[in-house]
Amino acid sequence: VKQQGGNHYSFYTPASDNELSERIDLEVALRYALERDEFQLYYQPQVSLKTGNIVGAEALIRWKHPQKGMISPMKFIPIAEENGLIEPIGEWVLHQACQDSKGWRSQGLGSLRVAVNLSGRQFRTPNLRQKLVQILLSTGCEPDYLELELTESLLIRDAELSIQQLQALKALGLKIAIDDFGTGYSSLNYLQKFPFDVLKIDQCFVRNLHTNKINVAITKSLISMAHLLNLKVIAEGVETQEELQILDEFNCDEIQGYLFSRPLSLEDFKAFVKSGTQL
Ligand code: C2E
Ligand code: CA
Ligand code: CA
Ligand code: CA
């Protein structure tokens, strides 16, 4: 039985039985995915609106399941969060991203930084800082080229502890970005209290900026507020020239989205950077 809140119960339908067994299959496969080398990082370019140049990339994990093909991180990250696999997976992501980004600089692709998504459970791992030190040392990645993306909901649960952890991480010299901003609690108070370097405006506000007056107002005030607090602003999910134009008008610092590039495999990303493509 599934609890629906209150005293209402309903019995599983065959559909939810399927969902359950699919989830169990995924969970089992996920346990072997690391050792079977089924994960890959894709990189989505982040471009400066001032110069039109690529300044960095967000690392996005991909899982190529041997039978099912590509599985979205939206599907398997929550499972990995629940069963604890996110810790080894997250460590793999950090290591790979730092290694790749060091490679970009040593191969003369430019001083490109890398942004890595951190899950809640990973953020709360007591030895995260130690792990990061090890990874930075072993890959030779300079800490100021690493940005960690965290979401609001993850930080607010225990604000004081989160602030301490953020400060400990920042002391290593890396940068902190607040991801999906505007979708959670979004208290302005929090924005001031937490030691962020970068604010990422969620794609739901970027969508249809040219026709949606409310999104225009929200985006405009988010950008000016972030700038008052000395944060750099990245707009994500930019898909059209119209959205880009408005973001530029509001002095957004950087953009990321299909308009400029989809997430790319490491090889494709390097080729894209070498091609000198500009915004
Ligand atoms: P996110 O961090 O908000 O990442 C942005 C998502 O938007 C990515 O989906 C990206 O491919 C997609 N995207 C980028 N540009 C556009 C656009 O112009 N239009 C649209 N419609 N979408 C765009 P993706 O790669 O499927 O990742 C989904 C989520 O999975 C991420 O959302 C993040 O929360 C999580 N995730 C991905 N990689 C990792 C990882 O290595 N670790 C953790 N903990 N989470 C990850
Ligand atoms: Ca992100
Ligand atoms: Ca995001
Ligand atoms: Ca501008």
UniProtKB/TrEMBL annotation:
The EAL domain extends over: 23-277
Top-rank taxon: Bacteria
Recorded protein name is: Diguanylate cyclase GGDEF domain protein
Q: Which organism is it from?
A: Planktothrix serta PCC 8927
Please give the first and last residues shown and the length of the full protein. 303 to 581 of 588
